[in-house]
Structures are given as structure tokens and as C-alpha cells.
Amino acid sequence: MSSTDVGVGVSGKGTARGSDSVLSVRDLSKTFPGQRALADFSMEIHAGEIHALVGHNGCGKSTLIKLITGFHTPDPGATAEFLGESVDLYDAGAPWRDHVHAIHQDLGLIPSMSVIDNIALEHGYLSRAGKISWKAERKRVEKLLRDFDSHVDPRELVDDLSRRDQAIVAIVRAVSGMSDDSSGLLILDEPTATLPEREVQVLFDAVRTAARRGCAVLFVSHRLADVLTICDRVTVLRDGNKVAERSVSGLTRDQLTELIVGNRSASAPNHSGSRFDRRQGNPVLKVQDIATEQLSPLSLTVRAGEIVGIAGLDGSGREDVTRVLSGITNPTGGTVSVGGESLRLGSIKHSLDAGIAMVPRERFPEGLVSSMTISENVTLPSMGDVVKRGRLSRRLEVDEADRWIESMDIRPRQPNKSVVELSGGNAQKVVMAKWMRTRPRVVLLEEPTAGVDVGAKRSIWSMLDGATRDGAAIVATSSDWEELAANCDRVLVLADGVVQAELHGQELTTDSIARNSMGQSLEKREDSNE
């Protein structure tokens, strides 16, 4: 099958309507300082079509979405047509973008408002004599929801809805402004990533309904089973370049995986061979059958001096591992021990007392107190050595911070600097310093180098390497497969909440992580749809 096979609607999944073009872009590029995120991209998507956009992390999917929605301005030379007419890609407020609706993983709903109020954010309320006609508004929203086979009470708070119903409300809001005789573009960014398996089919029905109404649907997903189940065509991005566009009909998961991964078999295996010598330490962290709604029972032992990575796509259960171990999330089952002592699950205090340090994904507000300085943040977890005669000593606090600023090469070297004024890399170093200062037995990290420059990445991994020499056991969850392959002793790869592989030695490569991350059971998804 040619990579330019672009037949529309051959699967019948989105009931695509012939050749009615909704959006066509040509020669679309975006360059950031030191990086070309998207290069000469072209695509056409049709009314009634569900068109998938896939690729590994950092391939350019998010950049493309932001260019289409007007968040980013393209490089010069790009052209576009919307509903058959030339449009301006360089005007973020152009009227055609009123017919483009993007729904991201967070859905963009306001939890404290009702369904009626959230849908009204799109186009306002029905009114009479200058007052909102609540009865008419409720009937209108009820009809919109029924069109999508949803029986949610329009008066209910969004916060009280299931994740599935919230997603349906977001879709209804997006398409409610599109009349039956006009088309628009609905962009769904990882719509099933956080949904339980049993609720995915209901969401699929809502997406198909949107397509039948005439929407063109751009379905962005890591979950290949979803793509092969619901989409008509698929476009593959790799390293900012479009490498394939195929009809989904007849396409297998293995073929799609090959298109996404490409010839990455030469990806360097773990080159930190000296770490294997340090696995002689005793077990520090023992995990037995911990489980959550998204995570099937998982068991894991981490030894002193070992770095274990947890890989997987969004929604794979990867994110739950560190959340459970740190006490943030209470699991549905399982046991954990640190140094042979049982850990009380669901308690942040008990995790801290056991010597577990957590470096969260979000630096603000989870990792740092934005109203505090570098020195205040660094000394916050353990203040005993900066207290003199029962009172906090600012001199001791600054001296202690200076030591860690020097050790971590935090810039600028100003302990009284507010952390909100730091770059992403330096802010992350402060988070690392505040926890490493406590000499933890177990270090948990979520996306440890997200949003930091190359130099800061080296510093962070160097610090973690030093922690292993001090006997710490480290667990790092990350979507950066190359970093995991280069810096971890072992990597557990999750898909659909289940460990697909445990990789180590020469088999620990970026390629093997990628393939196992995408190795979700298509048969499982198909069986659930019958």
C-alpha cells in the first residue's frame, strides 16, 4: 500500500462524505529557536471523515494543532483552504477559526458550572426580553445531548459527571454551533487516554455522531487500537515530518507501528554499563500488586543504587505508579515496603517519613512554593539544621541554600531570588535539590527533564547518578524514551495498565520501548466492541 493512499471513508467508520474538503493545508512549517518542529506539512481532511494523526512523543502533533487553532504562527509560505475558500493562517482571530474546535485531555470544561452553563460558553444562552429563558435553554441542551445518545441532566454540575460524560459534553459543546448544512473541524487530542476501557465505545459513538453531522474529525492519539477501530485515514508524523498517509482499511497494528517508529532499531542501548555493577545493593523498595482504576496489579523491586524507568503512553497507567508510592493516590489494592518496613498507602506523610522523595511533573504548584525564594524552597522539607535556639536562622538558611546552589549549578546563584523568576531547567534543579538534601532512600520522579535544556538535563541525570552511589533507589516515569534508554538500568513498559515488557541490557533501546508502548491488545479492544 502506498504511503499516499488517501481514499476517503473506505472503512465507513466515520461515514465520510465523498470529497467535500473542510480543511486543506499546504507547506505548513514551524521553527522554534534551535528546532524545526514541523517541516513542509500538507494535509486535507473531509466532511464526515475521522482522520487520525499519530506519531511518537515530540513528533510535531501538538505543534500542528496549535498552528491550526492559531496559538502559533506558521513560518512564511504556508497556505490553507477552509470549506473550499482560501483563508489566512497568520491571523489568529480569523473568522474561519470560529468553526475549528479543539478538545484536549483536560476537556476545557469548568467543573463548578452546570452542563447548561458549560455549553452556553460556546454561543451564549437563549433569552427573552433580555433575560435567560432557562426552560427553553434546558430543552435545547437536552435535545443536543440526546442527539449524542446522552441522558445527562443539563442542570447537573460537570464535576459530578463521569469522565466519559464530561468528554461527551465537551464534544456536544464543540459541535453545537455547527448547523446541519455547514461543516467544521473537531480536533480531539488523546480523547480516550484517561477513559476506562468500558467507556471508550460510548465516546466512539459520540465521535461518529459528530462525523455524521458533517464535522471533519482530526483524531490525535497514541492508542493505535483506537485509531484502527474508529478512523478512516491516518497521517503519520515523525520528527516533524509527514512520513505517511494511509487508509486505515486493511492496515494492521504492526504496519502502523512500523510507520511511526521507522528505522530506529539502531537506537543506542543503555550505555551506562557501570550502573549494572551497583545493582549489588539490597532491595530498598518492594511493591506487590498495587492497582488503581487504570493500573492492573503491578509488582516491582528496586535495589539500592538502581534506576528503574516506567514507560508507557498517556493513559497507560504509567502516571499512577509514582502517585501511589508517594501517597498522593490511594490504590485499590496491593502492598509496599521500604527497607523491609510496610508503608501505609494513601498517606503522603507516611511516605515522607519512610524516606520517599517525590519530584512531581508540575513544578508549580506541586514541586515549589511560588511565593518563596530559592533558599526557602530548598530548606523547606527539612529545617532542623537551619534553626538556632528554636528560631529560623536566615543566615543558616542562606548558607545551606548556597551549598546546594553551587552543587546543582543553579543560575542565577542568588539564594534570595524568587523561584518564579527562574528558567524551567533551574526551577527543576531547585525541586531536585530540596529533596536530595533530605538524603532519601527512594526517589520518585515524574517527567524529570520535561521543558529543560540539554545542559540542565545532563545536570539532573548526573545528580541522580550521584544519588545511586549514595544508595538511593530511583523510579522515574517519563515519556522521553530516549532518556530512559540511556539512563536507566531497567525499564518497565506499560500499555493499557499492564506491564508489556521489562527491558534491560542490550534489549533496552528507544525502539524496544516504543514498540512495547504501542503494543496494546487490539484483540481486547475489538472484543469489547462486539
Automatic annotation (TrEMBL):
Domain ABC transporter: 23-264, 279-521
CDD domains: ABC_Carb_Monos_I, ABC_Carb_Monos_II
Keywords recorded for this protein, A-Z: ATP-binding, Nucleotide-binding, Repeat, Transport
GO MF term list: ATP binding; ATP hydrolysis activity
InterPro entries assigned to the protein according to its UniProt record, in alphabetical order: AAA+_ATPase (IPR003593), ABC_carbohydrate_import_ATPase (IPR050107), ABC_transporter-like_ATP-bd (IPR003439), ABC_transporter-like_CS (IPR017871), P-loop_NTPase (IPR027417)
A Pfam cross-reference name: ABC_tran
Name assigned to this protein: Putative ABC transporter ATP-binding protein
Organism: Rhodococcus wratislaviensis NBRC 100605
